[in-house]
Amino acid sequence: MIRQLFTVSSMIMALGMTPTHAYGGVTRIQETNQSKNGQCTGTIIDPTGEPVIGATVTVKGKQGGTITDLDGKFLLTDVQHGATICISYIGFEPVEMVWKGGAINVTMQEDSKTLNEVVVVGFGTQKKVNLTGAVSTVDSKTLGARPVNSVVDALQGAVAGMNFSTPVSGGTLNSTKSFNIRGTGTIGAGSSVSPLVLIDGMEGDMNALNPQDIENISVLKDASASSIYGSRAAGGVILITTKSGKKGKTSINYNNSFRFDSPLNMPEMMDSYTWAKYMNDASVGSGAGVWFTDEKLEQIKKAQSDPTMQKMFKNSNNRWEVWDNTPLLPLGNTDWLKEQFGTSFSQEHTLSINGGDDRLQYYVSGNYLNRGGLLRHGDDSMQRYTMTGKINAQITNWLRMTYNTRFSRQDFDSPGDLINGTDVFFHNMCRYWPIIPTTDPNGNWVPESYIGRLQNGGRAKNQTDRLSQQLSFVATPVKGLTLNAELNYRIVTGFNHRDWQTTYAYDCDNNPYVDINATSSVYEYSFKSNYFNPNLFAEYSRSFGDHNMKVMGGFQSEWFRQRNMKAQQNGIMSGLPTLDTTTTKPSVGGAYNSWTTAGFFGRINYDFAGRYLFEANLRYDGSSRFLRENRWNFFPSFSAGWNIAREKFWEPLTDYVNTLKLRASWGQLGNQNTDNWYPFYPTIGFSSQGGNWLINGAKPNTASQPGLVSSTLTWEKSRTWEIGLDWGAFNNRLTGSFGYYQRKTFDMVGPAPELPVILGANPPKVNNLDMTSKGWDLQIGWRDVIGEVSYGASLVLSDNQVVIDKYPNPSKNLGSYYAGAKLGDIWGYTTIGIAQSQEEMDKHLAKVDQSALGSGWTAGDIMYKDLDGDGKINGGEGTADKSGDRRIIGNSTPRYNFGLNLDAAWKGFDIKVFFQGTLKRDYAAGGAVFWGAIGTSKWQATGFKFHEDYWREDNKGAYYPRADWGGGRNTQTQTRYLQNAAYGRLKNLTIGYTLPKSITSKAYIENLRFFVSGENLFTITNFTEAGDPELIGAGYGGEIGKTYPLSKTFSFGLSVTF
């Protein structure tokens, strides 16, 4: 009865969610001749005799159909004798039968595919039902559900516990999202922890892959799942399996996507007249008097309403005045962000061919992506070319070979002044005055517009090629024994070019003068890296009654070598920006680096009747980055599971909860990723012609004294334990997984205790930092079919917090980490409010002294709360124990990251909706884009529409305090302006239609689908309009708003298979 009520409820609520059918083989059928000719009736039950409610019953080849009622009964009319009746239901094997008249009684069987689903794990596969570690999977349907630029974009919001952040370069075409698994892995000096990405078993770059070449992805999240990879897996492991050829006739697929991008969440600037009044208030607020006279304000106002009156004025240098002489300032009205950024066009094309027979299968694909940037002037673009080929050959009955090759090329081209999202260009565009026009009266670009520089000031061009070759052999000489040999090789080459061309501006008589780069120059950098990785391992499995065992052991090694060369020369000959066409001596440099790892590994799996599960992983690793006596280390992990749903006492409940597994794990990992490949060697700094004196008329080469190194420097380590629960209910229509974990990271590299100055050198870094990370992740999915509507929903949700346990900062100075601190803590003052009158401010100052934060307090200024009761507002001694009136007011760590997928399909139509976001995060707002003309000079001040809500006599109760260029009295980090950076974003909406096969088959087309899609369509957030919550930390100086924006994308395309 419970299942019946649940199913009926789902039928009522089912509108708008994901197409997935679980179809398998044919079940037992009984027929009787009791109904009239032309009407097909029947009853459908499950193996326990319960009616199957909501099963879909159709006539093959015809549209329409019906579903079973509360008693499992159905009725089809106008059915011809000999027609094929199709019956399907999520979690059961489908039924097909020829109707010969009479009633149909069907017992549906559970789908065995669900029970036998396998998951890719380290050096092998396992049945999902027998997994004891924390592993999440993403299949090709999820990855290909929407048009994306990279695999990283497709994974965002798809895996619980996988966190993404936009890099400092913002939304530039060559930027890639950074990601981690289950939070920050280290705070060690010079060390880093990021997930190990393996593509068909070899380390690689996800961003160089064509997302449509991927078959599935496994994310190994805990130590027990990833420890088999040893020192490279401290941040978890992402296993990517690419598509292979399938046995059968040759299949050809072509798909495309055409995209239109526009800037996302770009703030609107004030108009010129409003901006001028705002700046006047700021000038008066700082005690400098008005900046613009009433006459000048009237000129600005008229020019704003009548563009024909917009003009510029000549100064004493015969140039157009822009900055200094107020009466001669121009009369324009420019929104600089809108002027510089606009819409762009991108396109992507993919062609793949696969097929084969019993002995040989092949897969070949090619992909071309051409992305246009958002710049309106100067142009920026990125092209990616990928080619993939894979052959699987059954050489003998016991020997199988796989050969896989991948090539990718990425080209990036942009103005030389705009290499990444941290360039000063973004800083200038936000602070430029709207009264400055883009062109002068002669029609030339105003030099302050940057447009001439973007178009003519030189280019930045980067090209990166990646070629991977993989060869593997799998031998099965005797039953249960599998021998594996893998050889992986990768070569990466890159070439970066940048030139700085002399750019000219024009005076009032149209005579040119140098704007920037009086001396032109060119810089070129090339690099090459080689990576070689052999893997040799064997696996033996055997069953003894209900006892099942599997043992695996092997050896892995990695060898990486890198070289680079660079040169720069000045004096480019016109039109030829190369090193050979310059007029000065070059400045050259280069480097050579390498590292090696080796490891022995093993794994033991045991289960009893699929109920009691155990796994042990052992890894003995060595790294070239440590001294010989510290080079090797042992990393074990253990996990166990209990399949409760397979116990006899659970049998009465299997109709409701058919999968229930409790699991637990413990493991230890090491981290050898440091920015110094030779941390145990004293290194001498060398500079070519770096002396500040002349010998025989030339500067000499110089060398610096080597620093001290530690002879005890060794691995960073982490220990993780986890307990989790996996479940499936109502024939696995409802599935889920939950895991709670704790990770202790210790022996991180940190600063050494201070030594006497007489030493004459900085003390070496040592292993002296510890931290603890705690968190959980949850994944829930529902999938069902009602009539002709198939639908589904899935939710991923995770949380993580990090506490510093040990750090050499005994005074707990707030300028550094300290023991007991949470990563991301924000210290600030508590705000009482804005004083609405001078009388209110005087009463406040009579109780507390705010002079430590500034002087000249008046109406419109902030009143801070005296938390320590000493009658003074200050930061105390700047330590956690003596922080004055500062307290922890928030935390910048993103918490409760989520992804929600909803999708549905009906008669060829499909719809997919994807939401992504963060439910809790704080941000300490700062910088000129947020504060406008408050607490900064007129040269750094900005003026956006949202700044209009500042305090003044006619706008009391405003959000911002009064405008004031002087000092930072009102811009202290404080509770009033602590931003809620939580957000939810409609990341994607895709609607598609697949033509009926009755139509496409006439043109020898297997499948033809059309789609339209939107990306980043809207955002729900209380975050400041100054920036995008996904771009926190990006941009010039890390200031919010001063970076290349993200994109809102609309696309359309098709996919056709022959």
UniProtKB/TrEMBL annotation:
The record ties this protein, via NCBIfam families, to: OMP_RagA_SusC (TIGR04056), SusC_RagA_signa (TIGR04057)
Instruction: Report the locations given in the UniProt record.
Output: Cell outer membrane
Key word Signal present in the record? yes
Q: How the protein sits in the membrane?
A: Multi-pass membrane protein
UniProt KW keywords: Cell outer membrane, Membrane, Receptor, Signal, TonB box, Transmembrane, Transmembrane beta strand, Transport
Question: What InterPro entries does its record include?
Answer: Beta-barrel_TonB, Beta-barrel_TonB_sf, CarboxyPept-like_regulatory, Plug_dom, Plug_dom_sf, TonB-dep_OMP_SusC/RagA, TonB-dep_OMP_SusC/RagA_CS, TonB-dep_rcpt-like
Q: Which Pfam families match?
A: CarbopepD_reg_2, Plug, TonB_dep_Rec_b-barrel
Please list which residues make up the signal peptide: 1-22
* Domain of life according to the entry: Bacteria
Annotated Gene Ontology cellular components are: cell outer membrane
By sequence similarity, the record places it as follows: Belongs to the TonB-dependent receptor family.
Give the chief site where it resides: membrane
Domain annotation TonB-dependent receptor plug: ranges: 128-237
Protein name as catalogued: TonB-dependent receptor
Enumerate the spans annotated as TonB-dependent receptor-like beta-barrel domain: 441-1008
Q: Does the keyword Membrane apply?
A: yes
